[in-house]
Amino acid sequence: MDKITIKDLEVNTQIGVTETERAHQQRLLITVEMERDLAAAGRTDMESATTPYDVVADLIRQVASQRPRKLIEVVADEIADAILSRRLAVAVTVEVKKFSIPDSHYVSVNIRRTQ
């Protein structure tokens, strides 16, 4: 299956298990891989035959920033649901990176959902 990838989209949101952690926004990096057939787009050069990735980027920002959450797992799941419910892909993989563990690059979750 063909894929469109948005890699490490930076968003700021209130996230964390403790109230102190959620008190201010934190940086997340979000990567999505959207699976769909891109053959028609490749043959026709028509925008309507592909997924508009600028729309997806805006959707990711909107979902990630709409409310405080405790877990990045929730952010990943809600982003996947938003993409699939709008039929922008037949399957989606979402990775959310958070920078909260000292002496590490990041912690991340990676989920895959299908139609």
Helix content: 25-40%
Rg, rounded, reads 15 Å
Strand order, sheet with most strands:
1-2-3-4
The topology string of helices and strands comes to: EHEHHHEE
- CATH domain fold name: GTP Cyclohydrolase I, domain 2
Count of helix runs: 4
Helix/strand-derived category reads: alpha+beta
Mean of all residue-level pLDDT scores: 96
CATH superfamily: GTP cyclohydrolase I, C-terminal domain/NADPH-dependent 7-cyano-7-deazaguanine reductase, N-terminal domain
Spans of at least 5 consecutive residues whose pLDDT stays below 50 are none
- The CATH class designation is Alpha Beta
Separation of termini? 14 Å
Molecular structure report:
It is a single chain. The chain is α+β, with helices and mostly antiparallel strands and 115 residues long. Helix 3 packs across helix 4. The protein has a four-stranded antiparallel sheet, with helices on one face. The model has no long low-confidence stretch (mean pLDDT 96). A hairpin with an 8-residue loop joins strand 3 (91-98) and strand 4. The chain contains four helices and four strands; from the N terminus they run E-H-E-H-H-H-E-E. The protein has helices at residues 19-22, 39-44, 53-65, 72-85, and strands spanning 3-13, 26-35, 91-98, 107-114. It has one domain (3-114): GTP Cyclohydrolase I, domain 2 (2-Layer Sandwich). The protein is elongated and about 50 Å long.
Question: How would you briefly describe this protein structure?
Answer:
With 115 residues, this protein is of the alpha+beta class.
